[in-house]
Specification:
The structure is a single chain. This protein has one domain: 2,3-Dihydroxybiphenyl 1,2-Dioxygenase, domain 1 (Roll). 24% of the residues lie in helices and 34% in strands. The strands form two sheets. A four-stranded mixed β-sheet has the order 1-4-3-2, covered by helices on one side. Strands 5-8-7-6 form a four-stranded mixed β-sheet. The protein is globular and about 50 Å long. The two termini are 13 Å apart.
């Protein structure tokens, strides 16, 4: 399906008026029971965290936001998908390969429509959290 057909099929036209003037989402916090394993996995791929508070909070700068891991008691995150957007499709492929090399799993990357055309490189971390690595592609 081409992008225009996709847009007409799935987008509301005209779009509803937003109820609030939100500036964006500026962070994501994941609570892991297997905290040290999660920190090791993300450190292997992203490098050392740039923010460390005590023994239960570590954060990485990811673009203009934060990815924070917190020590949890009730299992690892479930029913969540962490979107990580790269600057180029090649970088999306490279990041997915790095996550897989560190112990994650995922299918071969592919191009698809996801609101806009994207290079889609999903990964599941070793503790079961879905990481959606992707890069927007030109829509024309």
């Amino acid at each position: 399906m081409d992008y225009e057909t996709y847009r007409q099929k799935y987008f509301v036209d005209p779009p509803p008026e937003p109820r609030f003037q939100l500036a964006g989402v500026r962070g994501l916090a994941l609570f892991y029971q297997d905290y040290e394993d999660a920190v090791s996995f993300f450190t292997e791929v992203l490098g050392p965290p740039i923010y460390v508070e005590g023994k239960g909070t570590k954060s990485w700068a990811v673009g203009d936001t934060w990815l924070t891991l917190l020590r949890g008691k009730d299992g690892n995150p479930t029913n969540v998908e962490v979107p990580l957007v790269t600057a180029t499709p090649q970088e999306a492929d490279r990041l997915q390969r790095a996550f897989i090399a560190a112990g994650g799993t995922g299918p071969e990357p592919f191009n698809t429509l996801m609101g806009v055309p994207v290079r889609y490189c999903p990964v599941r971390d070793p503790l079961g959290v879905e990481l959606l690595v992707y890069c927007p592609l030109p829509s024309a």
